[in-house]
Amino acid sequence: MIVGLTALCLTACSGPWREGRASQAAADDATSRGAIGAIGTPVKAADIAAWNIDVAPDGHGLPAGSGDVATGARVFALKCAACHGAKGEGVLGDRLIGGRGTLASDKPVRTVGSYWPYATTLFDYIRRAMPYNAPQSLSADEVYAVSAWILNQNGIVPDDARLDAHSLAAIRMPNRDGFVPDPRPGRL
Ligand code: HEC
C-alpha cells in the first residue's frame, strides 16, 4: 500500500510544474515513469513480510524461536539498561518494572507489569521499536528472552521461564481485566 501511495503521489504531484521547467521536469518524469510503471505490479511476498510484523493480543503473528530469563538479562544489560536503568527502573526510557497495586491510587505507576493487558504486546513493541536507537535489530530469540526477563522482574514468570509463541500467548497479565470498552459512540 505504501508503495502504491508513493507512486500515486508522484503521478499527482508532478503534474502542475511539469511544463515550465523542461529539462529538470523531463529528468524527473523519467524517474516518475519508472515508479508509475510499478502500479498494478503485485508486491513481492518478501517485501510485504518485512512490514507485516504485528502481533495480535492472542499471539497471532508471533514468530518461531524462544528465549529464557537468563539470556534476557544479558540482552537487557547490553542493549536496554542505558536508557531504562539496570533494573528497568526508568531513566531516559520508561520505567518497565513494578507499580503493581498503584493504578487506583493518586499516583498510578503504569508499567508493562502493572498496566499492560497482554504479554504479546510486549514482544510486538520491542521487536518493532526497541532499542530506541536501533529498532528491529534484535533477533526473535533475543526479543523472547528480553521479554521473559522483563516479565520475570515483574513477578509474572518464574526465573527458569523460557518463552516462545505458545507460552508467551498463554500468560495472563495482572491488569488483563482492568480495561473497559470505550462507551463513546463512533470510532477513532
Ligand atoms: C536509546 C534509549 C533506549 C534504549 C537503548 C531502549 N529504549 Fe525502550 N524506550 C525508550 C524510550 C524513549 C521509550 C518511550 C518511547 C515512546 O513513548 O515513544 C521506550 C519505551 C519502551 C517500552 C514501552 C514502555 C511503556 O510502558 O510504554 C518498552 C517495553 C521498552 N522501551 C523496552 C526496551 C527494551 C527491551 C530495550 C532493549 C532491547 C530498549 N527498550 C532499549 C528508550 C530506549
Word description of this protein:
The chain folds into two domains: 1-52, no CATH class; 55-170, Cytochrome Bc1 Complex, Chain D, domain 2. The longest helix has 15 residues, at 22-36. It has a two-stranded antiparallel sheet. 43% of the residues lie in helices and 3% in strands. It contains eight helices and two strands; from the N terminus they run αααβααααβα. The chain starts with a helix and ends in an 18-residue tail after the last helix. It is mainly α and 188 residues long. Heme C binds at residues 79-80, 82-84, 92-94, 96, 111-112, 122, 125-126, 130-133, 138, 146. Heme C binds next to helix 5 and helix 6.
SSE diagram, text form:
Elements: H1 2-14, H2 22-36, H3 45-51, E1 66-68, H4 69-79, H5 81-84, H6 119-129, H7 140-153, E2 162-164, H8 165-170
Antiparallel strand pairs: 1-2
Helix pairs in contact: 1-2, 4-7, 6-7
Heme C binds at residues 79-80, 82-84, 92-94, 96, 111-112, 122, 125-126, 130-133, 138, 146.
Concise description?
Keywords: Heme, Iron, Metal-binding. The protein is built from 8 helices and 2 strands.
| Low-pLDDT residue spans | 1-21
The CATH architecture of the largest domain can be given as Orthogonal Bundle
CATH first level of the largest domain: Mainly Alpha
How many β-strand stretches? 2
Q: What is the assigned CATH homologous superfamily of the largest domain?
A: Cytochrome c-like domain
Order of adjacent strands in the largest pleated sheet? 1-2
Shape, principal axes of CA atoms: globular
SS-based class: mainly alpha
Q: Percentage of helical residues?
A: 40-55%
- Structure annotation, total helices: 8
Strand percentage, roughly?
under 5%
Q: What is the average per-residue confidence, as pLDDT, rounded to a whole number?
A: 85
Q: At the third CATH level, what is the topology name of the largest domain? A: Cytochrome Bc1 Complex, Chain D, domain 2
Distance between the termini: 21 Å
The ordered H/E elements are: HHHEHHHHEH
Instruction: Please state the CA-atom Rg, rounded to the nearest Å.
Output: 23 Å
In this entry the ligands are:
heme C
For the report, how would you describe the main beta sheet? 2 strands, antiparallel
Task: Give the oligomer, counting copies of the same chain as homo and different chains as hetero.
Answer: single chain
